[in-house]
Write a structure and sequence with these properties.
The structure holds two protein chains of two kinds. Chain A has two domains: 163 residues, P-loop containing nucleotide triphosphate hydrolases (Rossmann fold); 74 residues, no CATH class. Chain A is 38% helix and 25% strand. Chain A is built from nine helices and ten strands. In chain A, the strands form two sheets. A six-stranded mixed β-sheet of chain A has the order 6-7-8-3-9-10, sandwiched between helices. In chain A, strands 2-1-4-5 form a four-stranded antiparallel β-sheet, with helices on one face. Chain B is an all-alpha fold. Chain B has one domain. Helix content of chain B is 72%, strand content 1%. Chain B is built from 13 helices and two strands. Chain B has a two-stranded antiparallel ribbon. Classes of the chains: A alpha/beta, B mainly alpha. Chains A and B meet through α2 and α3 of A and α6, α7, α8 and α9 of B.
Chain lengths: 249, 327
Amino acid sequence: MTDHILEVRNLRKSFGALLASNNLSFSVRRGDVHALIGPNGAGKTTLVNQISGFIRPDSGSILFEKTDIVAMPAHRRAAMGLGRSFQITSIFDHLTVAENLTLAILAHSGHTFRFWRHCLRIPLVQQTLPSTLERVDLDHRANLPARHLSHGEKKQLEVGMALAGNPKLLILDEPMAGMGPGGTVEMSKLIRKLKTTMTILLVEHDMAAVFALADRITVLVYGTAIANGTPDEIRTDPEVRSAYLGEEG
Amino acid sequence: MASIARKTAVLLPIFVFLAALPLLAAYLDNPYLLSLFSRILIFAIAAVSLDLLLGYGGLVSLGHAAFVGVGAYTVGILFHHTTIGEPLLGIFAGSENALITLPLAVLAAAGFALVIGAMCLRTSGMHFIMITLAFAQMLYYTAIGLEQYGGDDGLPLYARNTFPGLDTNNDLSFYYLCLVSLLLILFLAHRMVHSRFGLIIRGASHNPDRIQTLGVNPYTHRLVCFVIAGAGAGLAGALLANQSTYISPGLFHWTLSGELMVMVLLGGLGTLFGPVLGAAAFLLLEEVLAMYTEHWMFYLGPVLVVVVIFARKGLYGLLIGSGKNHD
């Protein structure tokens, strides 16, 4: 039997008359880059929010590492190894790059109720901060308030923060949105690098990047998974072509 | 970033001035200065504690006076029971020893902050502002209802609490007690905001969702921050009761909460030392303007508007150089 790190079963979520998740099921295999695609309004972000714990589904279950996490608050899921980045960059604007990453490192180490020692002088931070900065290529920006970073750099920081906790499953919500071609290449390189150590659930609009990076793809339309498979299977699936790829051209 | 040299150049003279103020008061033969500046130091303690919530935690509490009041009433009630010779709740004889009353006042304020914070922090934004205000007002009316402790009129204390080795009824000694308390609070607060706990609090202030995805529950951290801020305000209340040898329900009133908030904004949000400047500026302006008109608030308003619009980090920003929030 295949080893699934994440299984979503019969998920249902409606906002009034709008069915954002409609009996939605799919699974992510350990070690894969699993892409989630679908037209605007297909319910991708709603799904990601349900997996990470910001929205409670009306019914259905979400199994992470074989544990049903549906009733678990977001911070407990994160502590279990479920990391995510946000579609709209969600860094701490008023903190420096180093502080942003420090916050992420410390948060994952537990022991956040320490009131005395300066946060940047903690041994764990001094050990791991340089390598974390390097991993996302921001070592030269460490002391800059995050609000002064370029868009691409903010995205890199965002990913860096999700990485600081060494998540088992990393959800990247449109990491390439709003990036120029150079940024997309950089981000693709970063994702390939990360793939060696963790499973990645990638929500992305950039089809070229998705088909180049993903091991498996799930296609979402109107809150339902209409297809699951390898990039080649998805490319040739007639239903997908009519529902989605055809429109994209 | 504001350089350390710049900070020292500005802050050191201020501390020297505060330390030497009694000399000035003696030279000018104006003992009132001592009592005025004692009040400034006490309000500064309350404002610094409020800055932990407003400036660092992003929690707009409009009920901070509640904890000042709890601190003051703890001192007042304990004192009252020693004078009437009737034990509190039939068991505790009360106390007039500051080494007992001050810690108890701080603990009582922290306890109230724990209960009130536990409920208020389930809300956010406008609701948080309103519910903190509501709790403070509930305590205000409760204090009015405490007939045995003076009710509406408040309760005069016949003397200040005693402090071993210190004559607290001497304004000079009491002034230094307040100054040392303020320095202690500033030091502790400074350590706290730069610690890992402080980093979480600062992060959660702008982005609580993100903190959650990092595996941290912002609620418990905020609650602890709320309790610490409440404890600081409790100390200020306990000192204030001693300074004026009087407690009254007005210490719980929302206007005091508002004044503390003005001090923080005027001095510089999220700067710790700014609120000290804010408290000084507020009380000195009140003192000077009140000599000319009883409508001194009318003139203070525009000053506040100008400072808030033109100096992002308040008076502190004007002195140190604005821009970056943290060193």
